[in-house]
């Protein structure tokens, strides 16, 4: 059963989806599916709110945008058994896609992109009309991945203030990325506990050593990429330390029909670093790859 909760602070409508293993996942919805639906999958340690600006842009362009809090993140349930393998999260996404009237477009960043790639390449190549991967390829740079993990592990005791958390994020994003004056968006990614400190709202077990199934899922991403037949767009942050030019070239060999956009000045957090360029790239891609029954639109 899906329960709708209205968020009075925005145009977002929040639904709850129950997975086949009994977890309740929160899904933010924007707009109406005049042209179809777009499922947005965030990166590790993020929440659906990372997509707020892009979801609003997609809604304005005639799409229904569905931003999911992946299991263990945001307002979604945590897995009691710590099951956060890509294959498990991909089954969650497949279940949500099957509730929609037509095949959706799936957009995934970082961990969400690996989940999307697994879902389409290893489970059901007909699941989505199109695929957009955001700063993620099967072979990522170890140094960049380690920097992400180090950031996620760096504050086990939380933050005394939201300002302190914002400074940590700005330091991770690098030179020239000042912390925003308005911390309302950051507040949605943390929770204040009884001790008064602010903690990231995700299950720490996401970072636990991978079991055999999880490792097999990651290694399977190369084969998954070869199986992709849907229109595909890879969006990279030009300053990314996670996806290199070599990684992009390898991906384009695995998926020869894929398109590629390099967003100048952006790092791994592409949508947050330059949302205008990021959203424009996706909307342009979707205009050139319409769903059945819709005529292609001009750029």
TrEMBL record:
Alphabetized UniProt keyword annotations: Hydrolase
Record carries keyword Hydrolase: yes
A UniProt-annotated Pfam family: Abhydrolase_1
SUPFAM superfamilies referenced in this protein's UniProt entry, alphabetically: alpha/beta-Hydrolases
Domain AB hydrolase-1 per the UniProt entry, residue ranges: 37-270
Annotated GO MF terms: hydrolase activity
Record's protein name: Alpha/beta hydrolase
Organism encoding this protein: Candidatus Macondimonas diazotrophica
């Amino acid at each position: 059963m899906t329960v709708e909760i209205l968020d009075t602070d925005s145009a977002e409508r929040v639904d709850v989806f129950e997975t086949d293993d009994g977890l309740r996942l929160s899904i933010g919805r924007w707009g109406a599916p005049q042209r179809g639906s777009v499922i947005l999958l965030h990166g590790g340690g993020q929440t659906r709110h990372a997509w707020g600006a892009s979801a609003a842009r997609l809604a304005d362009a005639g799409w229904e945008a569905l931003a999911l809090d992946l299991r263990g993140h945001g307002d979604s349930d945590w897995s009691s058994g710590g099951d956060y393998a890509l294959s498990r999260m991909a089954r969650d996404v497949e279940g949500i896609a099957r509730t929609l009237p037509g095949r959706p477009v799936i957009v995934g960043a970082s961990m969400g992109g690996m989940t999307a790639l697994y879902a389409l390449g290893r489970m059901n190549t007909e699941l989505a009309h199109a695929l957009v991967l955001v700063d993620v390829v099967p072979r990522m740079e170890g140094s960049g991945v380690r920097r992400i993990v180090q950031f996620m592990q760096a504050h086990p005791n939380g933050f005394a203030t939201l300002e302190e958390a914002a400074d940590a994020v700005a330091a991770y994003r690098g030179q020239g990325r000042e912390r925003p004056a308005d911390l309302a968006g950051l507040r949605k990614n943390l929770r204040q506990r009884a001790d008064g400190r602010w903690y990231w709202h995700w299950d720490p077990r996401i970072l636990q050593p991978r079991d055999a199934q999880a490792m097999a899922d990651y290694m399977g991403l190369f084969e998954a990429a070869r199986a992709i037949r849907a229109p595909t767009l890879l969006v990279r942050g030009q300053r990314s330390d996670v996806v290199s030019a070599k990684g992009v070239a390898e991906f384009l060999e695995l998926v020869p029909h894929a398109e590629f956009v390099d967003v100048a000045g952006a790092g791994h957090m592409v949508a947050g670093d330059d949302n205008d360029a990021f959203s424009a790239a996706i909307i342009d891609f979707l205009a050139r790859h319409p769903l059945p029954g819709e005529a292609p639109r001009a750029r």
